[in-house]
Predict the 3D structure of the following.
Amino acid sequence: MYAAKHHVFVRGKSLKNPLPDNAATIADGREAFSHYCAACHGLDAQNTGVPFAERMSPPVPLLSSKEVQAYTDGQLKWVIDYGIRPSGMPGSKDVLNDDEIWSIVAFLRHLPPAGSLGEPEMYSH
Amino acid sequence: MRMKSFLLSICPALLLSSSVLNATPQPQPERVEITAKRFTFTPDQVTLKRGQPVVIVLESADVSHGLQFRELGINIKAGKGKTAEVPFTPTKAGDFTGQCSVFCGSGHGRMKFVLHVVE
């Protein structure tokens, strides 16, 4: 399945991130991620504080994992744009704009230590 | 003596009035008013002249919105039902696409605005 996802199903392999890889882009990505992605992936993209992450089928992946990080930047953009239907990952095209999605890709390449950003507020009430 | 003191007293007044008369009133920069409402900008495009200063005014008609032109270094954010503005002088011609910079819901990524700058 790994090979099929990485080499066949997930497209956009050759796309390059047009945004500069700097602290401002990563901060933009962290903010955009916190609005739309944190509900399932946690603020740190490592599922911190997400109560159902382990119980999903398949479980919500750690975005710091080797499998996820092995995608090219273009493939990560494609996954965020179109989602991975059977997994429960929705597409975000039109929900987030291209700049935000590319900034999220930059954030995913520079993830903070697990748990360092706290838990999503929605689960603390 | 009376005449001398009279002249001394009116000199500053004359100088002041002459400088006021000579001052050319500066034209106020045009205000470009844009309303943001989920999930559109109205208008959704505007044409400006290069070198002509304007004030971009963003009004939010519902939730918080923003308007960012990354290429131009502009990011205006208007809170829920509020207005924000920034002065701007275009320095290069071209078409620049702005996007909502404050997450506002399911159509947020579709909110776009085009700034045409002409010579």
Q: What stands out?
A: Chain B is about 20% helix and 45% strand. Chain B has a mean pLDDT of 87. The first helix of chain B runs from residue 2 to 22.
